């Protein structure tokens, strides 16, 4: 259904914008209808609607942001087409009910991203990023596919419901667990969590900033949506078996991601490691594996995507004008561009999870979910690691707001200022009225 | 709109007005003073019509996130009205104190002070744990920016330490609050009253005690969690130091009285001894360090830590004298600390130094200043007929009832306090006129007003403390009963 809208291949950003807006509208038209498509290979339920709205919304925001990035370039047509293609993959990943569809979705989004990561043809780093992403990604896809094959070997079906029935019948063969492990590994790679995170910093740094923004928001959200959907719908029956793996992975991921971010001076790398850390938090929602977990994952994904897209939009401007993403470039920004500095401070505070922002509420709700299921230890680890997060998120704020001799001056157009205002508004609104998201499903 | 909500909204309105105001700078600071006076008048009005015997009053409650049991509910009892009064009394003084100082980005500065006032009043009036937490954290943001943007040379590193330190505690408190929330019956709620009626085992209370204690102890600060405090106080701009020591650390004491004593009495009983020992070590430690300071601002910072340590000790005795003393001393310490830090600021701005050994003989230049300084100093060293005496007497009485030896050690603070305060007074104000001191000119009008108001308040509270004790008494008795329910 959604694919049809994009099959027109609208070239101009404006047309794409309206196409996406229409898609968003049709998306909500399906609210609570539970239609199945393609011989029951995808099912549109409220979970998938909320998530695909997030993806579409993020692409709309991305479009608003990337306008300034692509202003002098003529590649925009191909890029937009590929982005829309990736979006289709992402939407399939949120609404699949069949492992084949999951695989198709993941491949659609991944192949688009391989191309986009390497799209800055003259930059060596961009080429490196594309190659690295492709090699690692192909390997992970292999694992995933192998896992799917093994599961199919046990259950004789790709359908999530049939697999869930097979799981609940009990008496699972060894092959099934091997398949599960392989699928887990593939998902870990796509979600960028430890121990399959090594590609993240280099790819994030090397890829063009606008593409990095896309990876950090749309791809990440889609990966987590599919991860959650798969494990809630199919493997909840053997939760006792994989939850322990997830707990360890999640704890290690957030500690490692935050710790590594501390020593970064390149802002792009800093956000790359911070995205690993946030992936660790989002894994906690999968550990909860119930409706409350779904709600906290959605809220977290919204809060994180909004803040990241703002942060990357800022990086685009910074890199365009100063050719650097070193944190020193922020010095004295609050005195030359006070509004921009305030908006960026709100974004960073939200990423750090300090009230009254969306990031805080998302973390709070996630912790509540986990404590209500008895995972107090994991929450304490999460609390401690988010403290490390506060340390490196505050550092750019200090650079901006402390008086210094050098003052960075950035030329900001009214429209990009309005964009930052919009992002800030979303963050603050979600901070004050998280029920907009939580109570929706 | 109920009174509690009115008191909360006034600073927010002031903040918004200041933030969008775009005109004459002289008018801006006068307008800020006027706006803070409106808040003060409103709280005086509420105080005059206040009936302390009926528990929480002027309660107003709005749904915020009903599905999670979060309500924006606010109310006042004898304890919270006093702290709101303190906040609204000190804010105009703090703003007035900065009127003729050179401040860059005045608009942002005043807006942040009002935001701070808003958050503090929110902390003191809310009856919902979640909202309490949000305001608690919200208070951190303006003070962080005040210290960062108008602080000294090392403000970056120092404020970062301060922020992370306090946030560490807060996050543990958040975990504790979530735990309590999940224990409430039915579809869960954050309401204060339902937390009071929880039935928790001793083991649970023991864990919860540490979750909450960390947050409050860091904010107060209690030894050995104080290491952020001297640097932050010294490096922050004077208005920031006044806000921190005058009002913000009262959040910690208030939090203990409102959210710890009644909710986890068994946890308190279990750790009471240890905590009292820590508090008293802190009192002596800070007093001793104050003795050897040469930087007058740092000396006052340590003095402040010594006094608050005593307040915390009084609260943790959980007897009624300790609670009364803590209430009175919170007010007294707020007023005295603001007075003292302002005196430091005046000396520094007029002479260019605050090193005690470089100063001397200011009393020869300025009689009025030396008299006002003496009054504030006497309040700080707890001379009878000043506000400090009443509070410290009650506190020591409370500690004495708990354990004589504790009281003996804690009592040393009065002697040590007198030593370091009088000694620094002697070398700053008396003796030969040192060269920096000769630059000390007459006080400006706002300096006169602020110091006189502080001096009058010190004496007035010292002469008739009964009014404040009566006001808080029913609320304190309620807390006392709740915290001894299980014995």
Q: Keywords, please?
A:
heterodimer, A: 441 residues, mainly alpha, 2 domains, two-stranded antiparallel ribbon, 2 strands, 77% helix, 1% strand, disordered N terminus, B: 487 residues, two-stranded antiparallel sheet, 74% helix, globular
Give an overview of the whole structure.
The complex is a heterodimer of chains A (441) and B (487). Chain A has 441 residues and is mainly alpha-helical. Chain A folds into two domains: 7-232, no CATH class; 235-441, no CATH class. Chain A has 19 helices and two strands. In chain A, α5 (99-117) runs antiparallel to α10, α12 (267-288) runs antiparallel to α17 (376-401) and α15 packs antiparallel against α17 (376-401). Mean pLDDT of chain A is 83; it is low at 1-5. By secondary structure, chain B is mostly helical. Helix content of chain B is 74%, strand content 3%. A two-stranded antiparallel sheet of chain B has the order 1-2.
């Amino acid at each position: 259904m959604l694919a049809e809208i994009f099959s027109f291949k609208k070239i101009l950003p404006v047309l794409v914008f309206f196409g996406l807006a229409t898609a968003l509208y049709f998306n909500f038209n399906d609210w609570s209808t539970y239609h199945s498509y393609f011989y029951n290979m995808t099912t549109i339920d409220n979970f998938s609607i909320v998530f695909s709205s997030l993806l579409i919304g993020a692409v709309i925001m991305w479009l608003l942001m990337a306008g300034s990035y692509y202003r002098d370039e003529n590649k925009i047509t191909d890029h937009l087409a590929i982005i829309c293609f990736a979006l289709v993959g992402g939407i399939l990943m949120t609404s699949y009910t069949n492992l084949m569809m999951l695989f198709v979705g993941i491949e659609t989004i991944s192949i688009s991203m391989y191309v986009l990561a390497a799209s800055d043809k003259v930059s060596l780093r961009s080429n490196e990023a594309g190659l690295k992403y492709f090699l690692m990604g192909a390997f992970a896809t292999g694992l995933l596919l192998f896992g799917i094959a093994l599961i199919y070997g046990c259950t004789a079906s790709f359908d999530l419901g049939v697999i869930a029935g097979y799981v609940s019948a009990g008496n699972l063969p060894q092959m099934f667990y091997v398949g599960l492990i392989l699928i887990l590994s593939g998902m870990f790679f796509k979600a960028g969590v430890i121990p399959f995170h090594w590609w993240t910093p280099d790819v994030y740094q090397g890829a063009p900033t606008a593409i990095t923004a896309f990876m950090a928001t749309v791809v990440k959200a889609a990966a987590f949506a599919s991860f959650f959907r798969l494990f809630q719908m199919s493997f909840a029956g053997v939760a006792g078996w994989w939850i322990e793996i997830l707990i360890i992975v999640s704890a290690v991921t957030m500690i490692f991601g935050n710790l590594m971010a501390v020593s970064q001076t390149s802002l792009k790398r800093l956000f790359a490691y911070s995205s690993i850390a946030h992936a660790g938090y989002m894994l906690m929602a999968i550990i909860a594996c119930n409706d409350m977990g779904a709600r906290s994952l959605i809220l977290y994904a919204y809060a994180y995507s909004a803040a990241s897209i703002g942060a990357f939009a800022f990086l685009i401007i910074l890199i365009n004008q100063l050719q650097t993403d070193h944190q020193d470039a922020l010095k004295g920004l609050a005195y030359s561009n006070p509004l921009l500095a305030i908006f960026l401070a709100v974004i960073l505070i939200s990423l750090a999870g300090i009230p009254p922002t969306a990031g805080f509420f998302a973390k709070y709700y996630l912790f509540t979910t986990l404590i209500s299921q008895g995972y107090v230890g994991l929450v304490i680890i999460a609390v401690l690691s988010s403290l490390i997060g506060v340390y490196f998120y505050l550092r750019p704020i200090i650079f901006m707001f402390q008086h210094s001799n050098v003052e960075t001056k950035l030329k900001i157009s009214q429209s990009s200022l309005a964009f930052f205002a919009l992002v800030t508004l979303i963050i603050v609104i979600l901070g004050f009225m998280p029920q907009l998201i939580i109570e929706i499903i | 709109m109920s009174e509690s909500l009115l008191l909360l909204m006034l600073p927010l309105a002031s903040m918004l007005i200041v933030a969008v105001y775009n005109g004459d700078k002289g008018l801006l600071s006068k307008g800020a003073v006027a706006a803070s006076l409106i808040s003060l008048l409103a709280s005086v009005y509420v105080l005059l019509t206040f009936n302390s015997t009926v528990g929480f009053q002027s309660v107003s409650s709005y749904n915020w996130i009903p599905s999670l049991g979060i309500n924006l509910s606010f109310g006042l009892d004898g304890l919270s009205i006093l702290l709101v009064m303190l906040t609204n009394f000190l804010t105009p003084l703090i703003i007035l104190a900065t009127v003729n100082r050179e401040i860059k980005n005045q608009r942002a500065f005043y807006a942040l002070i009002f935001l701070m006032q808003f958050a503090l009043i929110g902390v003191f009036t809310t009856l919902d744990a979640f909202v309490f937490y949000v305001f608690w954290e919200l208070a951190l943001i303006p003070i962080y920016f005040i210290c960062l943007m108008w602080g000294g040379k090392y403000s970056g590193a120092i404020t970062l330490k301060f922020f992370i330190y306090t946030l560490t505690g807060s996050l543990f408190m958040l975990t504790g609050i979530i735990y309590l929330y999940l224990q409430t019956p039915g579809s869960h709620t954050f309401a204060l009253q339902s937390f009071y009626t929880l039935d928790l085992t001793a083991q649970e209370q023991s864990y919860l005690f540490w979750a909450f204690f960390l947050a409050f102890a860091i904010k107060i600060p209690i030894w050995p969690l104080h290491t952020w405090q001297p640097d932050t106080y010294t490096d922050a701009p004077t208005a920031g130091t006044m806000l921190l020591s005058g009002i913000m650390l009262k959040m910690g004491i208030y939090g203990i009285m409102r959210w710890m004593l009644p909710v986890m009495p068994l946890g308190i009983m279990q750790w009471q001894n240890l905590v009292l020992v820590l508090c008293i070590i802190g009192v002596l430690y800070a007093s001793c360090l104050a003795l050897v300071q040469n930087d007058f601002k740092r000396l006052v910072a340590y003095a402040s830590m010594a006094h608050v340590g005593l307040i915390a000790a009084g609260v943790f005795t959980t007897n009624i004298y300790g609670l009364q003393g803590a209430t009175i001393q919170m007010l007294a310490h707020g007023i005295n600390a603001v007075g003292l830090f302002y005196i430091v600021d005046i000396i520094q701005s007029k002479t260019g130094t605050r090193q005690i050994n470089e100063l001397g003989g200011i009393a020869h230049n300025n009689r009025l200043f030396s008299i006002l300084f003496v009054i504030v100093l006497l309040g700080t060293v707890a001379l009878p007929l000043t506000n400090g005496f009443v509070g410290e007497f009650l506190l020591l009485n409370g500690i004495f009832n708990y354990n004589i030896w504790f009281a003996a050690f804690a009592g040393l603070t009065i002697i040590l306090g007198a030593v370091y305060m009088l000694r620094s007074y002697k070398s700053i104000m008396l003796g030969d006129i040192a060269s920096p001191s000769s630059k000390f000119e007459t006080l400006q009008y706002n300096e006169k007003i602020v110091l006189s108001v502080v001096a009058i308040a010190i004496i007035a509270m010292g002469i008739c403390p009964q009014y404040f004790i009566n006001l808080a008494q029913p609320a304190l008795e309620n807390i006392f009963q709740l915290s001894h329910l299980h014995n």
